[in-house]
Every structure is written in C-alpha cells, then in structure tokens.
Amino acid sequence: MKKKNMKKTKYAIEVRALSKSFKLPTDKSWGLKQAILNRIKGIKGYVKQDVLKNISFNVKKGEFLGIVGRNGSGKSTLLKILSEIYVPDKGKIKINGTLVPFIELGVGFNPELTGKENVYLNGAMLGFSNAEMDEMYEDIVEFAELSPFMHQKLKNYSSGMQVRLAFSIAIRARGDILILDEVLAVGDAAFQEKCNEYFRNLKGEQTVIIVTHDMENVRRFCDRAILLENGKIIEDGKPNKVADAYLKQFN
Amino acid sequence: MNRKNRILLSELTKTDFKLRYQGSILGYMWAIIRPLLMFGILYLVFAKFLRFGDDIPYYPVYLLVGTVLWNFFTECTNQGIQSLIIRSDLMRKIAFPKWIIVISATVTALINLGINLIVILLFALLSGVSFSLSWLIVPFLIVELYMLSVGIALLLGSINVKFRDVQSIWEVLIQALFYAIPIIYPLSFVVVYSDVAANLLMINPIAQVIQDVRECLITSETVTGWEILPNIFVKFLPIIITALIFAIGALVFKKKSKYFAEEI
User: Fold this and answer.
1) Over its length of 251 residues, how does chain A's per-residue pLDDT go in tens digits?
2) Is A101 in the B-facing interface, judged by CB distances under 8 Å?
3) Which of B145, B131, B137 is nearest to B66 (CA)?
4) Cβ separation of B19 and A112 shorter than 8 Å?
5) Cβ neighbours of B162 in A, within 8 Å
6) All domains of chain A, ordered by start, with CATH?
7) pTM for this structure?
C-alpha cells in the first residue's frame, strides 16, 4: 500500500500523447455577418494549425525543467495547457499538487489599486485566500524591497517596481509547482542577482517549469530541458545537451 | 461553489466596486443619484406634463419602482455581456471558471439594486403607502428578474466573445424593450386600447416582475399579468420563459466557456 502511494506521487506532472491545434480565422471571417455568409456558402473561414503534435513527458517532483525552442514552436501553448487555460484536443495531462502559473507577471494588476490591494487580488487569482495571503504578504514585500510603497497606487510605481512586485508574488506564492514563462530575472542588476540566488537555492524544493530563450539560465538552473520544434519534442535530457541543440538550430 | 471560486468572486466584485466610481467626487452616491435623476426626468415629463398617472394612487412611487427595476435589468445584462471582453486579459493568462466573471459583474448591479430598494421603501412610506405582508413576496420577484438577467448575460456574453456585434445589438434592442414594458405608461392604457396587446406585453417576464412588485409594494389596484392573462398556462408563461432562458444561457455558456481563452 505504502509502495503504491510512493509510486503514485513520484511525478509532479504527467503528459500523455498531447495534441493541440488552433483554428486561425482567415482575414475575412471576422464578425457576425461574415460568419453567417460563410455558413451559407459552406466556407470554413479558418485554417487549422497544429501547434502540439503528440507530446509525452513527465516532470519529477522537485525537478527544475526548462522548455526551449524557437518562436512558434509551441512552448507557450504547452504551458497554457499545463496551466489549464487551454483545453487539449487529444491526450491527457495529470497534475499532482497545486500549480501556480505565471504565464505573465501581474495578471489582473490594476493601476488604480494600491500595491497591497494588487498583491491580494493577484493572490486571489491564484486561488489563495486572504488568510493565506496575510501569511505570505510580508515575505513578498520584503523580497520585492517595496515596503515603503505598498500603500501607493500601482500607477505611481516605475515599471521596474511593478515587475519586481509581480515577480516576488510569483516566487513567494506557495504552490507545489511553479510555471514561469520568459520571466526569469527582472529589475536592475542587484535584483537580478537576488533572483538568481533564489533559483540556485531552490533546487529540489519546488517543481519549477520555465520557458526561456536564455541558454545561460538553462545551464545554470535547470536539472533537465526539453527542446521543442514545430510542436514536437526533438531533444529531452541534460540542460547542456539541449542548450547546444537549441543554439545549433540557428547555424 | 468551492472555496477557491468564492475567494475569486468576492475579490473581483470588491475590485469592480472600488474602481467603478474611482476619481469621482460623489463616489458611490452615483449609484443612488443616477436612477433618481432618471426618475426625476420621467416624473416631470410623464406625470407632470403628460399627466399619465392621474388615475393611479402613489404614481411617483409606482414610476420609481419601474425605473429602478429597469435600471437593474439593463445594468445586469449590459455589464454581464461586456464583462468577458473586459476581463479577456485574465482569461488568457490564468485558469478559473469563467462564470465568475459574469456573476461578479452582476453582483455589483445587485448591490446597487439593494440600495435603491431602500430608497424606494423610504419614499413609499413617506408618500403614505403602508406596510403590508405582501412586501415579503418582493425578494422572490427580484430573484426571478435576476435569474432572467443572468441567463441573458450568460447566453449573449458567450456569443459576444466571438461576435462583438451582439453587444451593440443588445444595446439597441434594450432601447426598444423599454417602450414595450409598462414602465412610464400605466398598463391600463394598453388594456383600454387592446386586450391582445396588453396580454402580449405581460408575457414579458420583466413586465410581469415590475407589475407584480408594484402590486405587492404599492397598491393592489395595479393591473398585473396574473389578472389579465387568459389561462393558467399563459399566466405562468413569464416564469417558464425565465427558467428557459436561464437554462439555455447556462448550458450554452458551459459549452462555450472552455474555449474562451483561445477565441477571445
């Protein structure tokens, strides 16, 4: 019984034969009139584009996984399916634990609200209650180094301060799995160093999946990486190997 | 509703509420002032100049009830339909049940209605209307109107995600609808002119609710759908329509909402 349980929880994420396609509207198929006309004429009004083609992989608990690939290779779509924003056409995904997605930093941030209000709003979007946010709040503000500004409206923040706040929520939010899309290091040099430090120390504690174009980050932080090309995994393994394969694509 | 959804719903509603009147001097007072101003204009034109309500007791309260309920219906549906577009950024970036967006937009309208109802009650008592047990029926009628509004918002809102024309069509339609409901004119005007026309008007659930609230709250001399509609099936038709619209709205929304993040 015990053994079975352990086997069950070995993976944080399991992805089986995942496929996804989009119906991209052709330029004339916008609006109600055109939709009705298309229906009458029997025109489809869209082209189908396969974004992910039969993808399978597992992510172990505590693993730091990097997903790399050229623009349009399907990285973001994959993250959005893992985050349950998109529905897969075929295949299955299984998430063990709470997943905290940051497809973009500061989702729902409102310039008219104060820094503090935005932290709680952002937390609610991620599914944290006020009580849970109370516990995390000090930690977030301290990491962002913004405590004197938390009662100011967000519109009075510099853009650097805004990303710092958003990023601090991302890495201080207590979830089992953290998903970050192209947002590894933000802010000025000092803050970036602090973020790097944080990721270096993180190893093994939390499952992290990042999408990035910076191979330095892949080599530095990841335990494993996946290279996507045209919706397929063409390389899966050691970060160095995958980073080299990625760079080779441009030669 | 699970805990996570409840947190999000209350947080989104609070934000909506905080932001709606931001930067205005009177702030939240506008939620009361707006319908009162609209009422003032209608009262001046229809009660004082055109003398519409001379044979109706407490006509000003009668008119106020109509405008407040109508305001609620338009606010609920307009905000509800547009809410998905306004929050499109959220849907693209994070996963959560989409109905929360529509409901949070309508909850703000519901709160405004609550405040306006207090104004109505005060106004009614000051005008000499006395309390009666039938007041207790009013909440049920409001539930009916809310269900109708939410049903419409879910149905049209989910179509509006792909075809933004819906929003504009609804705004025009609602203008026409205003005159097809006995809000400014008494229903008795129509009854005198044609029974069929009056029956047709009263099949509309909004008209039914407005007349019933007037009947319960102000005067039993109100002509209601229940009194004039011919048989028991037709008498229940407004409620059946409400339930149908709500059910269809919920079903269509459930089916379409899976793909909102991709289509918006």
Assistant:
1) 344 444 457 899 999 999 999 888 776 656 777 778 877 877 777 788 899 999 999 999 999 999 999 998 999 899 999 999 999 999 999 999 888 888 888 888 889 899 999 999 998 888 888 888 999 999 999 999 999 999 999 999 998 899 889 989 988 887 889 998 877 667 788 888 888 888 888 777 889 999 998 898 899 889 999 999 999 999 999 999 999 999 998 87
2) yes
3) B145
4) yes
5) 35
6) 62-248 (3.40.50.300)
7) 0.88
**In this structure, are residues B72 and B112 in contact, taking their beta carbons and an 8 Å threshold?**
yes
Tokens representing residue B191 in the block = 């009854």
Chain A residues with CB inside 8 Å of B18's CB? 112-113, 117
B11 sits in the region (left: phi over 0; alpha: psi -120 to 50; else beta) called alpha
Taking Cα atoms as reference points, which of B157, B175, B69 lies closest to residue B116? B69
Domain residue limits, chain B:
3-263
* Cβ contact A91:A170 at 8 Å: no
Q: Smallest Cβ distance to B259: which of A87, A112, A125?
A: A87
Q: Do B8 and A103 touch (CB under 8 A)?
A: no
Residue A70, amino acid: R
Amino acid at A30: W
Chain B: closest CA distance from residue A100 (Å): 9
Coil, helix or strand for B115? helix
Q: Does B100 touch chain A (CB under 8 A)?
A: no
- One-character DSSP codes across A99-168: EEEESSTTTT--TTSBHHHHHHHHHHHTT--HHHHHHHHHHHHHHHT-GGGTTSBGGGS-HHHHHHHHHH
Rounded CA separation B2/B225 (Å): 39
Q: CA distances (Å), A74 to each of A50, A80, A189, B185, in order?
A: 9, 10, 31, 60
B94 touches chain A (CB under 8 A): yes
Q: In this structure, what are the phi and psi dihedrals at residue A226, rounded to the nearest 5 degrees?
A: -130, 135
Enumerate residues 6+ apart whose C-beta is below 8 A from A108. A118, A121, A122, A125, B89, B90, B94
